[in-house]
Amino acid sequence: xxxxxxxxxxxxxxxxxxxxxxxxxxxxxxxxxxxxxxxxxxxxxxxxxxxxxxxxxxxxxxxxxxxxxxxxxxxxxxxxxxxxxxxxxxxxxxxxxxxxxxxxxxxxxxxxxxxxxxxxxxxxxxxxxxxxxxxxxxxxxxxxxxxxxxxxxxxxxxxxxxxxxxxxxxxxxxxxxxxxxxxxxxxxxxxxxxxxxxxxxxxxxxxxxxxxxxxxxxxxxxxxxxxxxxxxxxxxxxxxxxxxxxxxxxxxxxxxxxxxxxxxxxxxxxxxxxxxxxxxxxxxxxxxxxxxxxxxxxxxxxxxxxxxxxxxxxxxxxxxxxxxxx
Length: 326
Ligand code: DP6
What we know:
Blueprint: E1 3-14, E2 19-21, E3 26-27, E4 31-48, E5 55-58, E6 61-62, H1 65-82, E7 87-94, H2 104-119, H3 126-136, E8 148-151, E9 164-168, E10 176-181, H4 191-201, H5 205-224, H6 228-247, H7 258-272, E11 277-280, E12 287-291, H8 296-303, E13 311-316, E14 322-324
Helix pairs in contact: 2-3, 5-6
This protein binds ligand DP6.
Ligand DP6 binds next to α4.
């Protein structure tokens, strides 16, 4: 039966970078994210006996073979669990640019996990869905939930404890984010390759792993106390530490473009003027600004004047992934 799900993207406030097991996609560090209302993936899955193989339509077009294979391998997890062999037709639509460091794999695999589980007739708890979504992409485990979400690195070798938990729902603290699009081009080096190279070659990698624990503790406290300044400071610390780490890989990984750097300076300048605005960035050149909802329009107006910005996506904090009636 065909089932459709919607999941929101998320942006990590404390970053995941590095794996303790590549086969099961187990993260080497925990992470904490904020789910984003305005960025979502809408995916339907239909297991059908009449299909010669899995088919993936992504944003209205047949997907590349590599993407189709990644989705096929992911669907095998559900087929195995449900005891079915049928191929699936998967139709997936993002409402934001794909592959440009905007977490399309997070919302993509979360929506796919939810739709595939339902289409295969599996009764899956959110924890189990998070565990399965992680197999598609580490950050996808967090997109099962709305609000503020922590992904546990876990310790078990089977990965059953490498799952996300919701720290607070979206209504708890309505923060906002401005996503400043500096380039719509596909990124050159995906996060998976980037983090693997970092783990293999950076002399700073052990320090990154060791120091992540205190970032998680501090971020949990900032969220529990609704301390915006603290949240912003820790988010910037984790982000710049991750990008510094990536730069220390061999060959160096640099996700920023000129405009990214200009915008980082601009956000710092606005902060000196009294605005509450903090930067975070992922495996791409887009700059995300964490702010309070009441400051978002003014910040958008100020940042929108910077030459070269393609567009700004303002977003509130988003809710849980959910099934949608077809
Ligand atoms: C920089 O979840 O895309 O966005 O597990 O290999 O698919 P894989 O990686 P992915 O990596 C996300 C990296 C990040 C930080 C984060 O979201 O925590």
